Amino acid sequence: MPHLFSQRRVAFAALALLATVATARTDEERAPRTAAEFDAMFREINNWRRWGAGDELGTMNLVTAQKVREAAALVRRGLTVSLSHNPMPDEAPDNTAGAFRHTMGASRRTDTYEFTYHGYGVSHMDSLCHFLWNDRLYNDIAASASTAKGCGKLGIQNLKRGIVTRGILLDFARLKGVPYLEPGTPIYVEDIEAWERRAKIKVSPGDAIFVRTGRWARRSALGPWQVSTSSAGFHASVLPWIKTRGVAIVGSDAATDVMPSRVEGVVQPVHTMLLAGFGTNIFDNMDLEALAEAAATENRWEFMLTAGPIPVDGGTGSPLNPIAIF
């Protein structure tokens, strides 16, 4: 736990500071660069026991009643925008696991939906039992808490009451003046803070942040590609910033991490830290194109966010249609 790693805390803080000093720094100069450095970071900044040994909500604890009231106050015009991409029925390089099957019943008045939502094709939410690090789930829960019957701890049913908080769009394609970021483009702390200055907004505790890389705009223009191995996203060096700012939820139009990850030996360090370390739910494969247009029209990149996952006992997540309200 943090109090056991005071020396490591000082060393890591120095590394994190060096990693964000200048935009000219290369990936080789930004921590973490290896699995060992990631493990040191994980031990240093995780949220285990922050809200008690029995906690299963993680950073959703930061979404207080006051935060909900503040989010509701952002509704001025009543404009609603979906953040979900419609299910895709055809397999593609970015939809190998999630091809959507819709079968009508004989009466043509019932139907069956069949799909696998984890992957890169379906808009969904990850519960906290979805990822592990060193065979442990968030809050130091053993992997054995999950069985073939579901997650005994940290399942999606814990969010049955729904989510209402302030959402913030981080539009990095707009920041860079391009329709979309090229696959493999890393996003650093200085990019986030540059967007904050441009949008005149500051991420604060309890917020849900949404990372727009322009994935769906690129797909529309150039066709699908293997997003799982080549996508723009957060570099792992942003993780201390996310912890410090008190971000409650992280969403993106892919799966958050830059791919390849640039951390040797760790495929998805951001995903891993958010879920297993911070206890932060993730919204994957959000379609942020309509949101980006609405935010630009309104000249506001903050909004009230609402979302309600299917409360499956022990579920590792849920398909999701979050709504932004301006």
Written overview of the protein:
There is one protein chain. By secondary structure, the protein is of the alpha/beta class. The protein has one domain: Glucose Oxidase, domain 1. The chain is 26% helix and 18% strand. Strands 1-17-15-9-11-13-14-4-16 form a nine-stranded mixed beta sheet, with helices on both faces. Strands 2-3 form a two-stranded antiparallel ribbon. Helix 8 (269-278) links the parallel strand 13 (249-252) and strand 14. It is globular and about 60 Å long.
Low-confidence residue ranges: 1-23
Largest sheet: 9 strands, mixed
Annotated CATH topology: Glucose Oxidase, domain 1
| The CATH homologous superfamily | Putative cyclase
Written as H for each helix and E for each strand, in order along the chain, the element string is HHHEEEEEEEEEHEHEHEHEHEHEEE
Helical coverage, percent range: 25-40%
Kindly estimate the percentage of residues that lie in beta strands according to DSSP: 15-25%
Count of discrete domains: 1
Mind telling me which CATH architecture this is?
3-Layer(bba) Sandwich
CATH class: Alpha Beta
Question: What gross morphology would you assign?
Answer: globular
- The span between the termini is 41 Å
Work out the radius of gyration: 19 Å
Class inferred from helices and paired strands: alpha/beta
Assembly state of the chains shown = single chain
**How many distinct helices?**
9
- Mean of residue pLDDT? 92
Spatial ordering of strands, largest sheet: 1-17-15-9-11-13-14-4-16
